[in-house]
Amino acid sequence: MKKYLLYSVICIGFLFPNFTLRAQGDSKGRNLFDWADTVDVNRPPKNAQSNTLSLIRVHGNVFVNIAGDTVVFRGTAVADPDKIAQQGRWNKKLFIKVKDMGAMIVRIPVHPASWRARTPAKYILLLDQAVQWCSELGLYVDIDWHSIGNLGMELFQDPMYNTSLKETYEFWRAMAVHFKGNTTVVFFELFNEPTLADGKLGSMTWSEWKKINENIINLIRAYDREKIPLVAGFDWAYDLTPLRNEPIAAEGIAYSVHPYPHKRWPPYELKWEEDFGFATGKYPVVATEFGFILGDQGAEANLNYGNTIIKFFADKGISWITWVFDPDWYPRLINSWDTFKLTEGGEFFQQAMQKKH
Q: Which pTM does this prediction carry?
């Protein structure tokens, strides 16, 4: 496109010698062709290790690698890359520490507000770095559009989550084109936590939410048919009961769930089975966010929740990603950027990741 533009300018110069285009800038100091030099985020990066990890795909209700072996993921989330970069902590060491903890996968949450503030062109450079580091370390990646609220009515829980259908579609189009062929990026988590907040964020039926997700999936697959879309249910990504009657009309997808302790009271298992566990009979399920606090800041009862849910995941074949490997966001898994010392919760999840089930 650019060379055609330059050719046009040259032709105009020959045909109309008195007509000149001041490439140095206009009266406001802007380059007249800034719009033509916009960085295209819809362009795959050059990454020699983009396919060093085995391609993961959906087979029935499980994930399998290229050899056909069943894969159950265990891992952790980091904080928003923009937040970490602003603190001067965005480096490979962070991912080495995640790997040392025993993780197989890293969830990377992209807040719409930070995506816009840094600009897509600059933000995607952070994602490229993360994917490169993870490729080198043998870690898979889940890219998460980290919004909370009602995407249908575009009402959200906090300004940091504000987005739109158009921006959401554009984000996933950019991800699909940019990371096509990259087997390190295994999941596209389409929307972090859908919720109507008991009507405080408006209304939306499951059928409407289903259609939005199907539109996103179809858009992604126009560019990349290998990534596995993760679809969340209502109640802050907890309730998958609508799948009994209206599953998403797409093959090769999985469902995400966020079963924090406050969602149900003990005994947990019967309610978990009713709310999301049943879905594992037909589909892969990933607990992409959950966690708790132990020690002085948390209830000892959370240890019972932790042991119970890890066993429930193992019994149901549910992959899981705990929240969050960061010293500032809660429930945090580390106490400090300097030492990376694990919290009591971090030690619990490290043992759970490294345990052979």
A: 0.88
Grouping H, G, I as helix, E, B as strand and the rest as coil, residue 185 is strand
Q: Tell me the DSSP string of 297-341.
A: GS-THHHHHHHHHHHHHHHHT-EEEES--SSSSSS-SBS-TTT--
Domains of the chain plus CATH, in order, are 72-354 (3.20.20.80)
Per-residue pLDDT of the chain (357 residues; tens, 9 = 90+): 444 444 343 343 433 334 333 334 444 454 544 544 445 666 666 565 678 999 999 999 999 999 999 999 999 999 999 999 999 999 999 999 999 999 999 999 999 999 999 999 999 999 999 999 999 999 999 999 999 999 999 999 999 999 999 999 999 999 999 999 999 999 999 999 999 999 999 999 999 999 999 999 999 999 999 999 999 999 999 999 999 999 999 999 999 999 999 999 899 999 999 999 999 999 999 999 999 976 555 555 688 899 999 999 999 999 999 999 999 999 999 999 999 999 999 999 999 999 875
CB count within 10 Å of CB 159 equals 8
State the pairing for strand pair 254-257/319-322. unpaired
Six token digits for residue 152: 């249908």
Round to whole Å and give the CA distance between 104 and 353. Answer: 9
- Distances from the Cα of 273 to the Cαs of 60, 182, 189, 234, 309, in angstroms? 19, 34, 22, 16, 11
- Which token pair is 199? 């009507």
Q: Cis before residue 324, ω within 30 degrees of 0? A: yes
Token pair of 268, please?
Answer: 């947990």
- CA dist 155 and 122 (Å) reads 27
Encode 58-111 in three state secondary structure: EECCEEECCCCCEECCEEEECCCHHHHHHCCCCCHHHHHHHHHHCCCEEEEEEC
Beta bridge partners of 230: 189, 254
Q: Tell me the β-bridge partners of 74.
A: 320
- Beta carbons within 10 angstroms of residue 203's beta carbon: 11
